[in-house]
Amino acid sequence: MDNTTPSGFRHAPVSKFLVEVIGGCSIAAALLNVRTVNLPPVWRAVVSSCTFGSVGHTVIGTWLLYRMRIIERHSGSPKYAAFVFISLVTSALLQAGAHRFLNFKMSGPYAILFAMLCQFHHIIPASSRFPLFGTTVSDKIYVYLAAAQMMLANTSVIAPCICGLTSGLLYASNVGNIKTWRFPFWRKSRPAPSSNTSSSSSTAADASIGLSSSSHMPQPTGDLRQRSAEQEVQVSEENINAMSSMFPNVSRDAVASALISAKNDMNRAADILLNMGD
């Protein structure tokens, strides 16, 4: 398995937490047929803010939250966690203010999701482009269409979605220098080395034996390894030019290496280059 290619929730613990909590709460509420009107006020606010309004919205919304993990890989988990917190607070204040005038029902994590979509539009480059109805669109259109379908399918969520977009625009505008905020994340400490001298000496002896035996064996040079990798995966100049246009500050050699590692998958190659940028 290629360790340079992020897959699943690798390098995205905040996204994993959001998908598990929001997706799990939405599925549980749908299966148990939870009615928020019968809950106490505090539980009503918690459940309504963590659950989507229908099964269809749960599927689409959870998929969009999973897709937004690329923002976390691009920005880093501490910055992404701070962005989620700021967007939650800002959108809640905007919804509370709009509720006094529009009297709409405040429910679901639609605001935070559309704040993420605003960031997705601003900082994530398109991986590919293709013609559609006489115009050229990017592969990001699938995300936008899914979000638009979710918003327009139920008019009661339009106002929270607009509040989320407004919150995302405020963050993108760096009002109050909020882009510099970070949540602290600590790495797990590595285990201390063993104090057993006999085991360490035997390990050193094994290592020295391995080094001495391997020193007599011919090792492939970097050029040979690169040629063998290129023989396995043929990268076209068209893909290299397309990726270079999306990442103008990255050398063509790095773009070619990313495409080779991703086996010509431009989406995976873009993830690799974004991760290299972090």
* Biggest sheet descriptor: 2 strands, antiparallel
Task: Give the number of helices.
Answer: 13
Instruction: Give the low-confidence spans.
Output: 1-6, 186-218
Fraction of residues in H or I helices? 55-70%
User: What gap, in angstroms, lies between the N and C termini?
Assistant: 21 Å
Structural class of the helix and strand makeup? mainly alpha
Mean pLDDT: 74
GO cellular component, one term: membrane
Keywords: Membrane, Transmembrane, Transmembrane helix
Biased composition (Low complexity): 191-208
Region (Disordered): 190-234
Can you describe what's shown?
This protein is an all-alpha fold and 278 residues long. The chain is 64% helix and 3% strand. The chain has helices spanning 13-32, 41-50, 55-67, 69-75, 77-102, 110-123, 141-152, 158-172, 197-215, 222-232, 237-246, 252-261, 266-277, and strands at 129-132, 135-138. It is found in: Membrane.
Main traits of this protein?
278 residues; mainly alpha; two-stranded antiparallel ribbon; globular; disordered N terminus; Rhomboid-like_sf; CUE domain-containing protein; membrane
Helix-strand layout with pairing:
Layout: H1 13-32, H2 41-50, H3 55-67, H4 69-75, H5 77-102, H6 110-123, E1 129-132, E2 135-138, H7 141-152, H8 158-172, H9 197-215, H10 222-232, H11 237-246, H12 252-261, H13 266-277
Antiparallel strand pairs: 1-2
Helix pairs in contact: 1-3, 3-7, 4-5, 5-6, 5-8, 6-8, 11-12, 12-13
